[in-house]
Design brief:
- The complex is a heterodimer of chains A (306) and B (377).
- Helices cover 27% and strands 20% of the residues of chain A.
- Chain A is α/β, with parallel strands linked by helices.
- Chain A has a domain of 176 residues: P-loop containing nucleotide triphosphate hydrolases (Rossmann fold, 3-Layer(aba) Sandwich), CATH 3.40.50.300.
- In chain A, the strands form two sheets. Chain A has a nine-stranded mixed sheet with strand order 5-2-6-7-1-8-9-10-11, sandwiched between helices.
- In chain A, a hairpin with a 3-residue loop joins strand 10 and strand 11.
- Chain B has a nine-stranded mixed sheet, sandwiched between helices.
- The chains are: A alpha/beta (306), B alpha/beta (377).
Chain lengths: 306, 377
């Protein structure tokens, strides 16, 4: 689940990469959004970037962190993966680099692969629940091979223009049932929601529901203090915080090197996540800027910080 | 800053993008929201009539003021709506929002007064969704009537979202606003909100839906509990003529531009000036930490008085370094030497000393010689 920032559309960048990645790897997609015509969004999905070097090859549908996973593995595998030739016979390598300026080829967006649902007008969540159940029933989890996986992307789940947006218990129980359906099938789901529009207690409950919890934050423009504190401030468009990482069927905790990343758009084409580098400041306490109160903003970072 | 907002509304939306939306938010402490709304309205109207804007027409949805008020307002600014009614239309939701007059006429108790052609938008308060749909359709219809078809666009100004929220649920109001924003032919949209009339969630929803948020705050916060205090009254009076105008603009690249100005209400209208220094937020470049990083005056003087042990004091004496191994009471010779150094510091108004306690006297020193001995600092 991704907690949006009401002031910036960075969650859309994550959504686009998630959706494109699935389509490129033959993973059917169910996309729900509060727009009247969700299909329009598909035109903005990026195409995989032509990669020069090999990317790591770890295909695990349990972990839907997508971007972050490959970034981490690249750090550890490095040279050894360069010899991995992969399949060059028409199949795409598992890639996390997408070119935002190049739209995804049309044949990926055919109706068999992408199902779109508009959630604005439905008075309650039963329609969405049914669609999700139907979609997920196609990907049962067998003990054997992973034949096919599905992806569900729900954008701005509690957007105010949705008729059900003040039915907080209903939304919570939808998330719970979606979670249980996803667990018992070969699929992953990505839900983005604006936490500022939920009551605080429900916001906490939703955060607990998530297996993996991320949040995106906008940064102020032309802020002298920030530009002093952070290197590369000019290129940054926002921050990404990792609050929780999925720990399914394991007792080994995931300990991250860093939980705050800056979101940059390289040449306006590639989404790049970088660890925050704090510029040297006299007398500072040395904590990463991202974990200090003023930037991450809400109290959510407190208990869930690793 | 007000100029940049008006320019953003004038420039409108790019292809495939939602229309820029402005929320003007005020509260009882600084009640200038409507002045700002009128200012933006007259600016945008003059842009439209001069042909400088993306939009070719403006629909004003008036809930809290009668349409004649807006006609007067624009006339005072030199814009004659009647002759330019091809460009500006006022949707009257003020005269009879719930259709009471019609019902009274049906009941035979009322003779309809003639008034300018109005299109009442709320027929039935209970059917929320339908009501907003009707309003949406009327707005779009009026807009299309202004500009014709094709690629032309129109702008929408909503007098008061508070009134809308009284008649319909928050989600249907949000639905209306977001549908207007995503309509192909809407160039820009702005609305006024009195934040203390609603729960916090409503303001949060409207901020979520807009791309620019301006809020008005009082310049001076009066102290609590001292009502009737003369000082307080003058502060409140002050607040009724001036205020702080904060703007948050969500830029396309995902960053947020934050700006502030001072706003003055005068007889002639409203004016914006940059913040005076007393109100400016200038925290300097010191990072926010929990201890003090700056020195007081006394601390500064004391620091200047400390004699640094490795430095020439410029008085021809050989440098003796107190390495903390031998206590001062042990040898007279050392005491004398140490005393000269001490005397120096005492001469300079006393107090500047470096006190060095060695961890343990039993420690073997690395070397009896100071490796930096040959340096002449």
């Amino acid at each position: 689940m991704v907690m949006e920032d009401a002031e910036a559309p960075h969650h859309m960048l994550l959504l686009r990469n998630f959706m494109s990645q699935g389509l490129v790897h033959n993973q059917p997609l169910l996309y729900a959004s509060p727009a009247i015509d969700p299909r329009g969004f598909l035109g903005t999905l990026p195409s995989p970037a032509a990669s020069k070097d090999e990317k790591s090859h770890k295909h695990d549908p349990d972990q839907e962190k997508g971007l972050r996973i490959a970034w981490q593995y690249k750090k550890y595998f490095g040279e050894s993966q360069l010899n991995f030739d992969g399949q060059r016979d028409g199949k795409h390598e598992y890639s996390n680099e997408f070119d935002l300026r190049k739209p995804l080829e049309r044949h990926f967006l055919s109706a068999q692969r992408v199902d779109c649902v508009s959630i604005q007008d439905s008075p309650n969540l039963s329609a969405l629940q049914d669609r999700s159940a139907t979609f997920l029933s196609q990907y049962p989890r067998n003990d054997g091979s992973i034949s096919c996986a599905g992806r569900i992307a729900i954008q701005s789940f509690s957007a105010p223009q949705c008729a059900y947006s003040n039915m907080e218990w209903d939304m919570l129980s939808f998330i719970r049932s979606l979670k249980s359906m996803v667990r018992s099938s070969n699929a992953v789901a990505l839900i983005t929601f604006p936490p500022s529009l939920l009551s605080p207690s429900f916001c906490k409950r939703w955060q607990h529901m998530a297996d993996t919890l991320l949040s995106v934050k906008a940064i102020p423009d032309e802020d002298k203090e920030l530009s002093q504190l952070l290197t590369g401030y000019q290129d940054m468009v926002g921050f990404l915080n990792v609050h929780k990482v999925a720990r399914i069927n394991t007792q080994v905790p995931v300990i991250l090197d860093a939980t705050t990343f800056s979101i940059k758009l390289q040449k306006r084409r590639f989404l790049v996540l970088e660890c925050l580098n704090q510029a040297p400041v006299d007398g500072s306490s040395g904590t990463s800027y991202g974990t200090s109160g003023s930037c991450s903003g809400s109290s959510k970072t407190g208990n869930l910080d690793f | 800053m007000a100029e940049s907002i008006c320019r953003a509304l004038r420039d409108g939306a790019l292809e495939g993008e939602h229309a820029p939306a402005l929320t003007i938010k005020d509260s009882i402490a600084s009640p200038f929201g409507f002045h700002v709304f009128c200012h933006v309205l007259s600016q945008l109207s003059s842009f439209i009539l001069a042909g400088k804007s993306q939009s070719g027409g403006l629909v004003v949805v008036s809930f809290s003021r009668s349409p004649s008020f807006y006609l007067e307002l624009l006339k005072n600014k030199g814009i004659d709506v009647v002759s330019s009614d091809k460009r500006i239309q006022i949707l009257d939701c003020y005269s009879d929002p719930l259709g009471w007059k019609d019902r009274l006429i049906e009941a035979g108790n009322f003779t309809a007064l003639s008034h300018e052609a109005s299109n009442s938008s709320t027929a039935n308060v209970l059917k929320d969704v339908k009501h907003m749909d009707k309003l949406y359709n009327s707005i779009v219809e009026r807009g299309k009537g202004l500009i014709g078809g094709g690629k032309n666009r129109f702008s929408v100004a909503i007098d008061s979202v508070d009134e809308m929220s009284r008649h319909a649920s928050t989600s249907s109001v949000a639905g209306l606003l977001s549908n207007l924003r995503s309509h192909d032919q809407v160039s820009s949209i702005f609305w006024l909100l009195h934040s203390d009339l609603h729960e916090a969630r409503v303001a949060a929803v409207l901020e979520y839906l807009s791309s620019m948020v301006t809020s008005l705050e009082p310049l001076h916060q009066p102290a609590n509990g001292h009502r009737g205090d003369l000082e307080n009254l003058s502060l409140i009076e002050h607040n009724l003529k001036k205020g702080k105008f904060h703007v948050r603009i969500k830029r396309r690249n995902g960053r947020v531009r934050v700006m502030s100005e001072e706003v003055h209400i005068e007889q002639s209208g409203i004016s914006f000036t940059s913040l005076s220094s007393e109100g400016a937020i200038n925290q300097g470049l010191v990072p926010k930490v929990q201890f003090s990083l700056e020195l007081s005056e006394k601390e500064r003087i004391d620091r200047a008085n400390v004699v640094l042990p490795f430095e020439h004091q410029g008085n021809g004496k050989p440098i003796q370094i107190y390495d903390g191994r031998r206590s001062l009471a042990d040898s007279k010779h050392e005491r004398q030497v140490a005393a000269t150094e001490k005397v120096q510091t005492n001469e300079d108004s006393g107090g500047g000393e470096i006190i060095y306690f060695r961890d343990s006297d039993d420690e073997m020193p690395d070397s009896d010689e100071d490796p930096d001995d040959d340096l002449d600092i």
